[in-house]
Amino acid sequence: MSIPLFKNQQLLTTALTHRSAINEKLSTSLESNERLEYLGDAVLELATSEFLFKKFPHEPEGKLTAYRSALVKTETLAEVARQLQLGEKLKMSRGEVKSGGRQNVSLLANTTEAVIGALYLDQGFTVVKSFLEKYLFNKVERMLADKAYLDPKSWLQEKVQAKKLGAPEYQIMAESGPDHNKIFTVQVLVEGKVVGIGQGHSKQQAQREAARVAIEKYD
Is residue 1 part of a domain? Predict the structure, then answer.
């Protein structure tokens, strides 16, 4: 899988320029991809909303919002970035590379949004929708099957309540890495027993991962 062909290559270059590359002059772009990321985020939300509105004509607004959140969440967008090998193509400083920038989930997701923003400026909304249908919207069936649209913490809460067990308790086990790329390790306990351990670049993300692991055990 590869990035679509651009008419204006400079747009793509900017989309693949992390802010850390500007000071070291590692890119021909004079600006980072942050403005394109901002635009891409808005385009992505609109395109995804339209796709879900048409695909699920009988679902209420609340359900569609949950579906959209699952499709455009950081982890899913990072998966798209990996498919397109955006991490390898991204221009960034040596320090950012050393700290694991090419594998950073949040950074990969941001780059996906920047590419979407650049593609919108380059070729318009229709082309963006075709791109998303190929790389993102085809994940909707898996999302439904895995119930990924449900917040893992809420889903775990429901499961333990159904078993008449105590509420899940989340504990931070460790923090590692530099401030700009910190990794949290969290464990979730039910009635004093560890049922899941997860990691993430925020406490909330680590808690969700721990809950997701626990859900798999209960399933």
Answer: no
Domain boundaries, position 211: 152-218
- H-assigned helices in the chain: 9-15, 20-23, 34-55, 61-71, 74-83, 86-89, 94-98, 105-123, 125-135, 140-145, 152-162, 203-218
2 is a domain residue: no
Catalytic residues: 41, 113
Query: Does residue 90 form part of some domain?
Result: yes
Q: For the segment 61-84, what is each residue's pLDDT rounded down to a tens digit?
A: 988 998 998 899 888 999 999 999
- Could you tell me how many residues make up the chain? 219
CA distance 17 to 13: 6
pTM of the entire structure?
0.75
Pair 118, 35 in one domain: yes
State whether residue 48 is helix, strand or coil. Answer: helix
Q: How confident is the model at residue 149 (pLDDT cuts 50, 70, 90)?
A: confident
